[in-house]
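Page 47, continued from p. 46.
Same chain as before, 590 aa.
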Amino acid sequence: MTDFTQKKTDAQGLLTQAGGLPFADVQLSLAAAELALGEVADGVVITDRAGRIRYSNPVVSELCGHVVGLLPGQRLVDCLALLGENGEPLVLNLSVEEEGAEIVPSRREVRARIHRGEGDELEVSVQINTICEGARVEGFVVVLRHTTDARRISSRLSWQNTHDSLTHLPNRQSFEHALQGLLNAASEARQHHILLYLDVYQFKVVNDSLGYSAGDALLIALAKILTRCLGEGDLLGRVGSDEFALLLRDCTLEEARRIVTRLREAVNSFVFQWEDSETRPALSIGAVSVDHQAPPASQLLASANDACSAARDQGRNRIKFFSDSRKALEKRRESSWLAEIHAAIREDRLLLYRQPVVALQDKNRVHHYEVLVRMQGRDGEVISPGLFLPAAERYGMIDEVDRWVIRNIFRYMALEQSTGAGGFHYAINISGISLGDELFADFVLRELTEAGVAPSRVQFEITETSAINNLDRALVFIHKLRAAGCSFALDDFGRGASSLAYLRQLPVDYLKIDGSFVRNMLEDEIDSAMVSTVDHLAKRMGISTIAEFAETPELLEKLRVMGVDYAQGFGIAAAACLPEISGPRTTPVR
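Result:
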């Protein structure tokens, strides 16, 4: 039995028992089963005796057509529009108003349709279970189930498009959509809200040093901590790898300051423990006012993000309310990062790391290494790529970083060859900016020739998004370098919406299956099916597959049985600095 099936069975068992459990026991059961309830394909709502919502799992929001979902404290009858078989409004009778009133049945089931607006209706079965303590009704468990398996799977996939699969919070797209909806509805001048942008201090350190599983666990824990601090009607979403956004509805600046203090205290009191390591995360918070004169949602998020960046620049655990113009903030950040990256290249403070990619069908033999870049700070600290590479891309410096990497890894590979051992094969990431530079292919060929490196040892990785955005240039680059003997991998495959449409046009040798599908495939049957589908498609096209984020022996074995060719991740080895090679060297290779 898979972990997903076990979770589903456990959750359904708890729901089945709910009618006979004392109310206190039901509270304990819900705390223990919250994760399991979040994974089942059915919508689950739990109310108090007056029909007010206490809990609803993520599937409910998709079934009802809500981006935000059903909020605690609302009456279910007010936010769930049900119709009977003849189109009449259906009343579930989830309220016990007086003591001694007629006891409602312990379990009942009806057929209904959920009215989702604009003529959209969804056929469901509605199972209602009564929670009792003795003869007293204390609440209800309502299970909403699609009438066909196909619709239930479609519902799950639709929910995944609008929610973060890790934290179950709305993703950036759906959060921005909900924020824009609030702006469109806000016509009264007296309405005032606060938007917070939260950056997690120490996340990248945990992710890079302890592995992606540790980073995931930290984000899940923080999402739960932040959720417990929410008021009725507030909206929390995950809008970046280590970034959350929080919309405080009907909130003044003074109230927002008190809430921010509560958020920071909650996070500061949390100690994240992973194996033998302890980490104390903190928040950098940017805030922006939202009223009827506010700009569009995307601009509001950008302003809050800028304020958050300013808070982060001042040190950990700070908050900054947006007041400076966005242009001024960007200019200050731009000059800071431009100067630092220029200095790192000039002072030879970029570092080359490598992470092995192993052959799953050949006893995990190292097939090649992916080349990764780090920056060494002026104090000697190694700076994570997640801190400086996005800035390099945003401000047009990434092509200089790419050229530095190309030049220095080729020198290292030439030194390997000079030892007589032949050397390993290396995969080098190419940014979208470099891919769109018509002179870049000639630069690579020239450096390859001057270094004397065998082209067959060189693989280039390009992301699916950058390849599609620069399709004509990408094809020129690929054809030139493949003609010279190099190979190509399409990175992050499956993340974009146009993957299949463009795959036929890109002559690549490897597909790197996006890690967001791989990391959860033991628990999520849909993710497992996605990995299997991509692998099968690649095989039919004569393309080898590489699975990213392979972090456990169980996951490696699952990938091996599935037939995936290669794997990479912390379950094999973390990235490490290039080992020193004894021999003549004219230029230091960092």
